[in-house]
Input
Amino acid sequence: MIFAVAALVAALTAGIGTLAMRAIARKYNIADHPSERRINTKPVPRAGGLAVAGAFALIGSLLIIFSAQLGLSAGSGSAELTSAGAAALLLGTVIAGVIGLIDDRYDLRARWQIIGQFLIALIPIAFGLRIAFISNPLGAGDLLFPDAIALGVTIFWTLGMQNSMNFIDGLDGLSGGISLFAAVTLGVIALPTSPLLAALSFTLAGALAGFLRFNFYPASIYMGTSGILAVAYALAVLALLGTAKIAAALLILGVPIIDALFVIVGRIVAGRSPYTPDESHIHRRLLSYGFSHRGSVLVLYALTAALSILALILTGSATLYAFMGLLVVLGGVVAYLSRATERTPE
Output
């Protein structure tokens, strides 16, 4: 019951916050204006994701403060949610949202955006969090990382999550919905060993649901860089804490992660900057193939839901094998959509 209540309160809080952010964004002209990079045909307020970050941090903090009274165990051993881990999660999410808000307001150049993302990626390190191991894809047990490599992998993971969610944020409700599926699934994974961590995951899902009320097609407000960076950071850290595994997160978020990989590699091979806008994203290809805006989003929702179920069923190296299989399958789908749209008459 407490999980449902936390999610509901977070949804209501995020909904109210989203309305407030929409009014603020309109007042200060914080908006996505129509351009060749945008699908919207009129200015749409952005920075709504800051309401998600605020609701998550507020309700999450209350859950931690009153965890004993609510009967929410932090877990024990390697599954324990420590005070440092909780601070890294909640405080880091707010910091990421504020850094993103600066970009939403001033539309920073790419190099400043990258610097901001790198600073965010250092937050888990500052609180002592590391990706110390991954499941061994070649046998039983885990692959342990030396500390220096663990630092690099942790930074790469957080940076990669930010860019993956940023790249997939191209249709109304897409990144928010995928993030909601991920938060729920990570919560279910954490539930047996750390109910408090599970409650925090469900709280994030609730906050996203409250925001999606205004962000699903046709959106009246966008998540913005503030929301993208905050939510991506929260998911990255949730996957680091307790029993929420990196391999499971890779599979759950396979759509944005693999999409970002294909897009970046394709642009580099073509001799262009990885941040040069084009039509190579999977959601753009679905639109070109003939899917509606809403239909494209629902297709990717369905795929993410299926991957979430797989992540709950599979364990250890099997999850990594599933991710590699998805890489091949999704690559084939992208190649097919690319050829099909090229043959379609203008």
Summary: The chain has a mean pLDDT of 89. The CA atoms of residues 44 and 87 lie 33 Å apart. Residues 317-343 form the longest helix (27 residues). The longest strand covers residues 133-135.
